[in-house]
Structure formats: C-alpha cells, structure tokens
Amino acid sequence: MKKQKDCNWYNNAYKKLVEYNKQPEKSGYYPIWFQAMSWINEDAKILDLGCGPGQFAKLLHKNGKNYVLGVDFSEVAIEKAKDNNPLLNFIVGDLHDNDAYDCEYDVVLLFEVLEHIENDILVLNKIKKDKVVIFSVPSFDAESHVRFFADLKSVLERYRDYIDIIKHKTIKASSGKKAKIFLVYGIKK
Fold this sequence. Notes:
CATH topology: Rossmann fold
CATH superfamily: Vaccinia Virus protein VP39
Mean pLDDT: 95
CATH architecture: 3-Layer(aba) Sandwich
Number of strands: 7
Largest sheet: 7 strands, mixed
CATH class: Alpha Beta
Number of domains: 1
Distance between the termini: 27 Å
Structural class: alpha/beta
Low-confidence stretches: none
Radius of gyration: 15 Å
C-alpha cells in the first residue's frame, strides 16, 4: 500500500489543478454530485468531510440543501472553499480528530476521500451511529490514492461492516474510458 500524502501535497494540488477552480456544473465530478444531491433530504444537516475547495458545497447551497460544515486538512482548499462560499462554514481539520465532527449533522459526505486515507476505517468509526453516509471511491489508481477498488463488490466488502449499504450507483469517470466512480449511500452502523 502506498503512503498517504501530507497536506503540503494537497495544498500544491489545489493551487495548480484547473479542475478545482471550475464551477460545480463544469466539473468532471458533476454527474456524481448531481446523483448524490438527489439522495439528500431537503432538511438534512450536511457535514462534508474532505470538502476540498467547496465546489460540491456551492452546488448543494445553490439547490437549497442545509450545508452545516466542510472540513479539509488543506489550508489552500479551505481558503478556496471560503472564497467560493462566503455564506457557508469551513474549517481546516484532520478527519482523524474529534473536532472535525463537532457539529450537528444528519448526513456525512465523503467524496473522493476514503481512497486517500490510510486509516479510512478510523474515519468511518468517528461518524455517529444511524447517520446517513454518502461516499464515492474510484476504480482507478492515482498518485495520491492509497487504495482503489476494482469493482463494486470490493467496495461493499471493505465498508459493509461499518455502513449498512442501502443503495449504490456506478458512474463513468471523466478521467478515462474504463474509469468508474462507485457512489454509495448507507447508514452508519
């Protein structure tokens, strides 16, 4: 298994990559976000872990969702998130620390996060029991990934002991012909 990248690596990525400066509707992640948004109840309080530069936060806010807090360990990502969403709340935080979960929430989002974290199970264990968890993970490797999933079965096998998986969808990734993103909805056990 590859080692997890530190916040400096992500700070540089958020400074350099054009994808992180796009409007949410222009992002390659838009099909995933659009589907996930349809799974979130109107009044649900949303905690966004690994929120990045706040593109999905912006889309959720535009569509009337109750975005409570975005957390990321990249200072650059949080600066961008705050600039893009002045009405929303964001903090720099480590998902392994309890402070990252110190708010009232009904839904936890983890989009393109779990594949970057060595201790992804520890992060899932920090989420309160009976809360909705919506996450996405890729079928492909990348420099910053510590893992990826060959198929949906491998995603379900890794996370089913922690999340009661209710529904899922496989979405073609914008990064390649065979690349897929596995989008999962469940309830924290």
